[in-house]
Design a protein that fits this description.
The chain is an all-alpha fold. The protein has three helices and no strands. It has one domain. It is 78% helix and 0% strand.
Length: 96
Amino acid sequence: MTTRRRLDWDLIRVVAVFAVLLGHVTDLGPVLHPELGGYPFVVAPQFGAAALMIVSAYFACETIRRGNPGRWLRNRLARLLPAYLTAVVVIYAIGS
């Protein structure tokens, strides 16, 4: 089954990522680098992060709705756990 990609979702993602960047620059930038001075406006970094979380949750729910939730969780874990465990072992080996 092929689905057509909707550009409005991509636009929402781009705006949310841009909001995160603006938040880091305007809110955290002056705190971390006071020599640069402040900005005439401040964007809270939580806005962009919250928007990205909402969009991600929407797509996760749409994916789960189409199929078996148990299969979705098993596939997700099978994809994420090997990389996570590899990273944990490598970090532990480097730190020891």
